[in-house]
Amino acid sequence: MRADGQANRGRILDVAEEVFGRGGESASTEEVARLAGVGIATVFRHFPTKAALLQAVLVRRFDRLRGQAEALLEDDPGTAFFGFFRHLVTDAPTKIAIGDALLDAGGDDGGEAAEASLGLRRAVGALLERAQQAGAVRDDVELPEVYALLVAMSRAAAVDDETKTRALAIVFDGLAATAAP
Amino acid sequence: MRADGQANRGRILDVAEEVFGRGGESASTEEVARLAGVGIATVFRHFPTKAALLQAVLVRRFDRLRGQAEALLEDDPGTAFFGFFRHLVTDAPTKIAIGDALLDAGGDDGGEAAEASLGLRRAVGALLERAQQAGAVRDDVELPEVYALLVAMSRAAAVDDETKTRALAIVFDGLAATAAP
DNA sequence: GATCATACGAAGTCCAGACTTCGTTTATCA
DNA sequence: TGATAAACGAAGTCTGGACTTCGTATGATC
Prior knowledge:
Two copies of one chain form a homodimer. By secondary structure, chain A is an all-alpha fold. In chain A, about 75% of the residues lie in helices and about 0% in strands. Chain A contains nine helices and no strands.
């Protein structure tokens, strides 16, 4: 693969993450091309369909998040779990499509994105289990509802940071074994 | 206005709520017309644009929810608040567009839908205040974050009822002054 | 039951946006 | 530095879906 081709592919992915994040999946491929400084044809050469581009963006993002989650397995269990939860939620706001995708990536997609999503879910599961063993999170909650909360909160984009923080505090309070961190 | 015209208008609104609820706002006007048993032209005669139709659907739904919330002002404060919260969240799953709309109806819409959304928000505020005075909900939470939680939870559609119930229990636990209902 | 404004739907127009074609440019490697 | 395969973008095609036109049907009123 030629160097310029690889560079363009990378820039297209970066721009696509930003554009789809802002406008959802209804954002146009042409805008991605324009902001990436390439022609539409170049986008379609690297990704055969718009859906394939979206999927590539999601896979990259899920994998990145999973990596961050796994890196936290060294830290203090409670801090790691709640910290990652907060990170994902506050990082997500401009990533509408990401939240939407998180939502149904478990489902009909069936492709690599679903697989990457599953990887992220497992990593969150590991953080949760550790936090429960350490007594930072109630023992009677399980991954499905925790993940559902994570997805739900990460889609509540259109509120200010202050409000989001307070909402998160309520959820954390409900999750905590004793008191919210 | 002729009787058949009024009847068609009502049926179009009903069908549109169902169709937009399922497919989001990207669902086509043609599908609404077909399921309502009328021609496309009839839909556009009653609602000049697709946006106007969507707005009419939202206004009706927000007003209905507000009515339900206000009717609960007679009941036990805690039961009323948590019951309405649960009702809205579990009623919403098939109403994707509704959740999305709830989300940003406070904002750029500027029209009747934003106004109706504000009415619903006020009604929830009344329920919240009563529940706090009765000691069912913590005193240190305020409407913005509670409403944000309501919106967030109502958009987490793609999970089974069991999981949704457990996720709600966690949130309620975080909201409750003592224990979840 | 005749009139006619109201309401209807079949068959359009029009445009945005996904995807292709094809002749030109450029990185790479001998 | 020339050969060549990889990569590029301008200018298309084509489809889906929002919105219109216009001739026909029908509920309301007398």
